[in-house]
Design goal:
565 residues
Length: 565
């Protein structure tokens, strides 16, 4: 007789005699399109809020006369709210449910956006950004978990990865709106206000979906049609405390090892800091002035979208483990390549905050918006897209340094050069600089189809439903903390070992991450959440030195459910 705890999914459609047949056309809500909209719109809101500060910072400085320190505090306030959400959000998700957590976060985001739109002082701006940071961090965790639980194994990878694609699209959308609203009086208020649009649309989509796992179990006529899963209910359902994440029970310690390892290596490979040099690399190959900034933001954004879409198409075919291994290997090679090239072709040494005191001029042409001239984007909170990887600016202060020919130039956070402008590439160095540009493109692409989307997909799969929210939030808190550490140590690291060795150190870290993925991260492609949970309970993580992985890279065997006795 098959153990009852293995029969976690109904073997066929079930419905009450007095109710309409759910298999009949018109009775099943469009679950997949609705889940796709929730994932995409959630990511779009996240990406937009992260990047909108890049265009709003300049007019905010003009209106409020912000110093470099105040600009950094305003940029970093979103991180403070996100950190708070990562600490308490897991308990909210597990206690009130995934759907309620998303709806609640949207209400909080509306309040934060209203605060920003009506703000009349720096204090209100900081409060609004912190509230928005709390909202998008909570929503990002709840969205990934919610979508992964509503759909089946064949669609889970695509739909959860769609969140990552939404983040990149949201960033590009914020750049476009920043550019369009740059010359508008009080345009920054509109920039902050437009973030509410995708949040409202996402809330409308949620109204037609089940509330969560418990309600999913009561909608057995809905979820099995999409290949979804109904978790077991009743008094026999296991209970987990937060401390169980560090215990051997059901191999929770092994799961936590996988989750923390992925989020830490995602950050320690230096992806956000490498992107700080995007504009410098573009300028070095001959794209000067505003064109280098546009290419660094929009061009790399387009590359990230294309790579994320590629990941969506491969994640349920090639598998999570394969994408992580391939992406991490390419990141190691490409960032090391940038480091080696920088030995021969010196680049700028780090970000700085260029400021002119008491700048009160009006905003100029749209070209003075968030698509910065002569430099890259200000150190906004950047994502992994996913995600979910903000950066608190660590810019060093410099003396007032107005732009040439513009004595009233406003302060800005940017990558600066000691020289007025990069020289045209010498013939002997042109090939090396184009090689650096190619390595940058490869690095961005590798992150966007590897660590970017797959980390959060794996985190939404490996934990039991009863503790999934708290476990996801716990790992997410380390993600934000590691990002903060990498950001704060960046300039000191460059000053100690130099830019080239810093990039090479990131390459070495990516090699270590490659080994971690090979030894510890399982393949979850094509398995239901119940099957993944059962496999983790049966196995204990051991180092696989000397043990050859099978051809599919799946270290676990699939559970066969049979009705035979």
């Amino acid at each position: 007789m098959v153990a009852p705890h293995l029969l976690q999914r109904p073997l066929g459609p079930r419905h009450s005699p007095g109710r309409p047949d759910p298999t009949a056309p018109g009775h099943s809500p469009p679950v997949l399109p609705l889940c796709a909209s929730v994932s995409l719109l959630g990511g779009l809101t996240f990406g937009y809020e992260l990047a909108v500060i890049s265009g709003a910072l300049l007019p905010l400085q003009l209106d409020f006369g912000l110093s470099c320190l105040e600009q950094e505090f305003l940029v970093g306030s979103l991180l403070l709210g996100a950190l708070l959400a990562s600490l308490v959000g897991g308990f909210l998700i597990d206690c009130y449910g995934r759907k309620q957590a998303i709806l609640g976060s949207n209400l909080v985001l509306l309040a934060g956006s209203l605060t920003l739109g009506l703000a009349g002082s720096l204090a209100w701006l900081v409060l609004g950004r912190a509230v928005v940071g709390f909202a998008i961090s909570l929503s990002s965790m709840a969205c990934c978990i919610y979508v992964s639980e509503l759909v089946g194994p064949r669609q889970r990878g695509v739909l959860v990865s769609l969140y990552e694609a939404g983040i990149t699209v949201g960033i590009l959308l914020s750049y476009a709106l920043n550019y369009a609203l740059a010359g508008t009086p009080w345009g920054w208020r509109h920039m902050f206000g437009w973030a509410t649009a995708p949040a409202v649309l996402q809330s409308l989509s949620l109204l037609f979906l089940p509330a969560g796992t418990d309600e999913t179990a009561t909608h057995k006529d809905l979820i099995p049609l999409q290949g979804g899963e109904a978790p077991k209910l009743g008094p026999g359902r296991p209970r987990y405390s937060f401390l169980d994440l560090f215990r051997a029970r059901d191999n929770m310690r092994g799961r936590t090892t996988v989750g923390l390892g992925l989020v830490l290596f995602q950050q320690l490979t230096g992806q956000p800091n490498v992107l700080c040099y995007a504009s410098t690399i573009f300028s070095s190959v001959g794209f000067h002035g505003g064109s280098s900034a546009v290419l660094a933001s929009v061009g790399l954004g387009a590359v990230k979208v294309a790579a994320t879409l590629t990941a969506m198409g491969l994640v349920d075919r090639a598998g999570r483990r394969a994408l992580l291994l391939a992406g991490c290997a390419l990141m190691a090679l490409s960032v090391s390549g940038i480091g080696l090239v920088s030995f021969a072709v010196p680049m700028d040494s780090g970000p700085s905050c260029l400021a002119v005191p008491n700048a009160t001029g009006q905003t100029g042409l749209p070209g003075d918006s968030g698509l910065l001239q002569d430099s890259s984007l200000p150190p906004i909170p950047r994502t992994n897209e996913d995600q979910r990887e903000p950066i608190l600016s660590t810019a060093k202060k410099t003396k007032p340094h107005p732009r040439s020919g513009d004595p009233s130039a406003p302060p800005r956070l940017a990558l600066s050069s000691a020289l007025p402008g990069p020289p045209l590439p010498a013939r002997g160095h042109a090939l090396l600089r184009w090689t650096a540009l190619l390595c940058l493109m490869v690095f961005v692409s590798a992150f966007s189809f590897g660590f970017g989307p797959v980390t959060w997909l794996v985190l939404s799969e490996i934990y039991p439903v009863e503790i999934r929210g708290r476990a996801f939030a716990f790992c997410n808190s380390f993600n934000w903390a590691a990002n903060l550490f990498i950001s704060l140590s960046f300039l000191d690291l460059i000053g100690t070992i130099g830019l080239s060795w810093t990039f090479l150190l990131y390459g070495l870290t990516a090699v270590l991450g490659l080994g971690f993925i090979y030894l510890f991260v399982p393949e979850t492609k094509g398995q239901s959440l119940a099957e993944i949970d059962q496999q983790f309970q049966k196995r204990r993580f051991t180092l696989s030195f000397g043990h050859r992985q099978n051809s599919t890279g799946i270290p676990y065997s699939r559970i066969e459910i049979s009705a035979a006795s």
